[in-house]
Design brief:
The complex is a heterotrimer. Chain A is of the alpha+beta class. Chain A is built from ten helices and 20 strands. In chain A, helix 3 runs parallel beside helix 5. Chain C has 13 helices and no strands. The chains are: A alpha+beta, B mainly alpha, C mainly alpha.
Chain lengths: ~350, ~290, ~280
């Protein structure tokens, strides 16, 4: 089922959670709503589910108006951040709940319910724990029960609120890969909320980056990561270095760098900020290129597969971060205090109307 | 499910405690105080009740006036507890699961009967329904008796037991949040299904706790009931009022025999209260673990 | 992100639930209580003042408030002791004692009244030892205080107990690492932490004692000017069909209750000021 979100706005007291948000989720896709806390992503998810009513705007399911539909009628599966498992029911009863509250006429028979729950238990690999209570499960197990419970009613849409937020790093990694595989199997239209860019990049078909109640950018993970549309997206996804400078008719001057910036052709001597990812900077010993700046190696740190280099710029008080691969680092054999040249391979310049 | 750990403190753990003689001194002092003010009165009730032997004890309980007092007390509790139970559940649903302006003021108003003297609680109903009260003349014209009759006793008891169940359930339901109910709704449950299958199992021990306290007070209320009852033997006397009459007639053994019924009720109440408290803590700490 | 308001909440039943709550509250509590004020308003100011400041009435205030204060002080001291012992030490019968602390809540006041009266009377279990030494408890203001100690006993224990339970052992460990001895730790660290709870319990016990009737009248002797409590005076006036007088005194009591309630609410707010 496809979801159309048209011009949704929502305020809580004086706080604008959502400001005229429109979004299309095609059928069968797995979409991530990515943003910092307070960006409105959870509110949007709850409005899609019908747990919250929008102040204005419409929600369409498969082109049909659903804004006024009750939660119960929407047939959404919702996985809550803290799972919201019924603590007085066993795992089995939790998963069966949605089936047992159906009106008598369409309620499946006992055996049918049992078969279905067992199938789901198999799917989440918890067959042995059917008689346990939620309190007796680990975080990751609860998460999977919550998912199975949501799937039991065969929802048209699966909505997940920070599904991995409360788990520790290793379990989180395992579960999100499992979720991706699961989605490839069952293909139910899914939307999940996260503030973790890595999670969004890894799991989603499409990422919707939100900030201050608006959508900043949407696209495939690589589109969003490689071509951020706004300074915010640049800043939010990945490590980024900032260069202050000015831009004039398509040429940017950034702390000793001269770059062409065709997308700012209409700017007239405007203050601007250049954004460079830390892995998009090359370190060289020779000043061979005019697009390089002199800098001093301040600090070297191995972070897993990468080596992080802190460079002090000539003005003496600003540093930039550079991520080198191990190989590069070994080739360069940098030492602290050494003078090198840093050359941004890729910089995006935004006229300065945005402050971090 | 390791529950109830909250109360089990690690006494003796670590070097930081008092010297043994201080500990024994404090324990002895505390126990002496409790023995003097709690255990002795409790024991006295039963000893005095059986002062003249089992025969006399049972005889006192079989007295028709006593039987009718027991009946009236049961009727009163049977009306009060369900009324306040229903109110308590409805009020705590509105207060704990929703937020609105003036909520804490509303909670204060619900607690009000606790801070009013029992005598004043009875008096206000006399001022409304009594002969000189607002509705007095009208009631007399229609030959309806409220004050110095059963309805007055029930009303005054409803007033004094009003907050018991609500104030027990409000914090409990607040601590449980709304997520489980929301989950039930997304799974297609109706409002009533959500309440009976999700909310109710989570608050049942809280309900029992509130009901048992409400019942104890309803059966034992003296001050408020004494103002509105009129003390008509065999018709508007509850058990506590019957105790007073017997005592004032210097019929001590009978007075204590009847009083021992109420003391037994108190002990049963404490027992059930302790169990439900324990269960309650269990469910809260399980909920806490789940967060 | 506070999600609030009835309209923002999908759970059903808010309007009927709140409606019924307010309806029932008004019917059972608010309207009857307001009757008291309306009735008082029909008195002239001079009449009201005369009724609430008559010598016998003033004497009853002295007895009631004096004994309540004394009882609350005793309960504050022993309440802290009992709570401390129950939380910190292990001894046989602790669970039972813990459960029994609530007895005064569960035991009907009339039962408490006749029992205390019989224990402290001339031939009673304690009275027979006390009276030869010139200590008369039953039928004196002292007896009133004893009854008030009984009914107020659980309040301080039950407000201090959870505070002590939640107290982090690390705080005491920190204090002793900094060189404080046990008594200094108690005085300077533990007592200030417990103080709001102690005061709240004190206020609750005091408020309960001021309004108490059933457990007192049997042991008080009820002599006008000496051992007559204010609630009893209200009943006496009612029995004499002096509705105006009864109402006036009841209004004073009710205003005192409201003030106590306000006090207790402020205390509870204050006690949460360090809460995270």
């Amino acid at each position: 089922m496809s979801i159309d979100i048209e011009g949704i706005s929502k305020t809580f007291g004086g706080f604008t959670a959502l400001d005229n948000v429109s979004l299309k989720v095609p059928s069968g896709e797995l979409v991530a709503l990515l943003g910092p806390s307070g960006s409105g992503k959870t509110s949007l998810l709850r409005i899609i589910a019908g747990l919250e009513a929008p102040d204005s705007g419409r929600i369409l399911f498969d082109g049909e108006e659903a804004t006024k539909r009750q939660v119960q009628e929407r047939q959404v599966g919702f996985v809550f951040q803290h799972y919201a498992l019924f603590r007085h029911m066993t795992v089995f009863d939790n998963i069966a709940f949605g089936l047992t509250v159906k009106p008598k006429k369409i309620r499946p028979g006992k055996q049918e319910i049992r078969d279905k729950v067992n199938k789901l238990l198999h799917l989440i690999q918890l067959e042995n724990l059917a008689d346990r209570y939620p309190a007796q499960l680990s975080g990751g197990q609860r998460q999977r029960v919550a998912l199975a419970r949501a799937l039991a009613v065969e929802p048209q849409v699966l909505l997940l609120d920070e599904p991995f937020g409360a788990l520790d790093a290793k379990v989180r990694l395992e579960l999100r890969r499992w979720l991706r595989r699961l989605h490839d199997e069952i293909h139910v239209t899914s939307v999940f909320v996260t503030h973790d860019q890595e999670e969004a990049l890894e799991v989603a078909d499409r990422i919707v980056v939100m900030n201050n109640g608006r959508i900043e950018q949407q696209g495939t993970p690589s589109e969003v990561y490689d071509h951020p549309a706004t300074p915010f997206v640049y800043d939010f996804l990945g490590n980024v270095n900032l260069f202050q400078g000015r831009v004039h008719e398509g040429t940017a001057q950034m702390g000793g760098l001269n770059l062409s910036s065709p997308e700012n052709a209409s700017a007239h001597d405007a203050p601007a900020v250049g954004y460079v990812r830390s892995h998009d900077i090359a370190i060289e010993r020779q000043a061979g290129d005019p697009g390089a700046i002199k800098a001093e190696v301040r600090y070297l740190l191995s972070v897993g597969p990468l080596v992080r280099v802190d460079l002090l710029l000539p003005d003496g008080n600003r540093t930039i971060e550079v991520d080198l691969t191990r190989e590069e680092a070994e080739r360069l054999q940098l030492t602290i205090g050494e003078q090198v040249f840093a050359r941004p391979r890729k910089m995006r310049v935004f006229v300065d109307d945005y402050q971090i | 499910m390791q529950a109830g750990k909250l109360t089990q403190r690690s006494e003796g753990k670590g070097a930081i405690t008092e010297p043994a003689w201080v500990r024994y001194l404090l324990i002895t002092a505390a126990l002496a105080f409790l023995a003097l003010f709690l255990l002795m009165p409790l024991a006295a009730v039963f000893v005095q009740a059986l002062d003249k032997g089992w025969e006399a004890y049972l005889e006192a309980l079989k007295e028709p006036d006593t039987i009718s007092a027991i009946r009236l007390t049961l009727i009163t509790a049977a009306v009060c507890v369900p009324l306040n139970l229903f109110f308590g559940i409805v009020a705590s649903w509105a207060i704990a699961k929703f937020s609105f302006r003036g909520k804490s003021f509303l909670i204060t108003l619900i607690d009000l009967p606790f801070s009013v003297s029992p005598v004043v609680s009875g008096l206000i109903y006399v001022l409304i329904f009594g002969l000189q009260g607002w509705l007095g003349p009208w009631l007399q014209a229609h030959d309806i008796k409220i004050i110095f009759a059963v309805p007055g006793i029930v009303l005054a008891t409803v007033f004094v037991t009003f907050p018991f169940i609500a104030r027990e359930l409000i914090p409990l339901m607040e601590s449980q949040g709304r997520e489980e109910e929301e989950a039930a709704l997304t799974l297609g449950a109706s409002g009533l299904q959500t309440f009976f299958r999700v909310t109710f199992p989570n608050i049942k021990w809280g309900i029992l706790y509130g009901v048992i306290l409400c019942n104890a007070r309803a059966m034992g209320e003296f001050g408020a009931v004494s103002v509105v009852s009129g003390h008509v033997r065999g018709s508007t006397n509850t058990i506590p009022l019957q105790v007073e009459i017997l005592y004032n007639e210097y019929n001590y053994a009978a007075a204590f025999a009847v009083a021992s019924l109420l003391a037994l009720l108190a002990l049963v109440t404490l027992a059930i209260k302790t169990v439900s408290e324990w269960k309650l803590q269990q469910s809260i700490s399980v909920a806490g673990k789940e967060r | 992100m506070a999600r609030s308001g009835g309209k923002n909440n999908v759970l059903p039943g808010f309007t009927p639930a709140l409606g019924y709550t307010i309806f029932y509250l008004s019917l059972i509590v608010l309207i009857p209580l307001s009757a008291l004020f309306f009735k008082t308003a029909t008195l002239s100011w001079d009449g009201f003042v005369a009724a609430v400041t008559a010598p016998r009435v003033l004497a009853s205030y002295r007895v009631t408030f004096g004994a309540s204060l004394a009882a609350a002080v005793i309960n504050a001291f022993f309440g802290v002791l009992v709570a401390w012992v129950l939380v910190r030490y292990r001894f046989t019968g602790k669970k039972l004692i813990d459960a029994l602390v609530d007895l005064p809540f569960a035991l009907p006041t009339a039962v408490a009244g006749i029992t205390l009266a019989s224990i402290y009377s001339q031939n009673g279990w304690l009275g027979r030892y006390l009276e030869p030494h010139g200590i008369k408890v039953a039928f004196t203001p002292l007896g009133i205080a004893v009854a008030m100690v009984f009914i107020g006993l659980p309040f301080v224990v039950r407000t201090v107990q959870p505070v002590l339970e939640e107290l982090d052992q690390e705080i005491e460990e920190a204090a002793s690492c900094l060189g404080a001895n046990r008594w200094q730790t108690f005085r300077r660290v533990l007592l200030p932490t417990m103080l709001p709870a102690i005061l709240t319990g004190f206020a609750l016990a005091f408020a309960r004692a001021v309004g108490e009737y059933g457990s007192i009248i049997f042991i008080a002797g009820n002599m006008p000017m000496v051992s007559e409590i204010t609630p009893l005076l209200i009943i006496t006036k009612l029995e004499q069909y002096d509705y105006a007088g009864a109402t006036a005194i009841a209004t004073v009591m009710l205003v005192v209750s409201f003030l106590m309630l306000l006090c207790i609410n402020l205390l509870q707010k204050w006690s949460r000021r360090f809460a995270e």
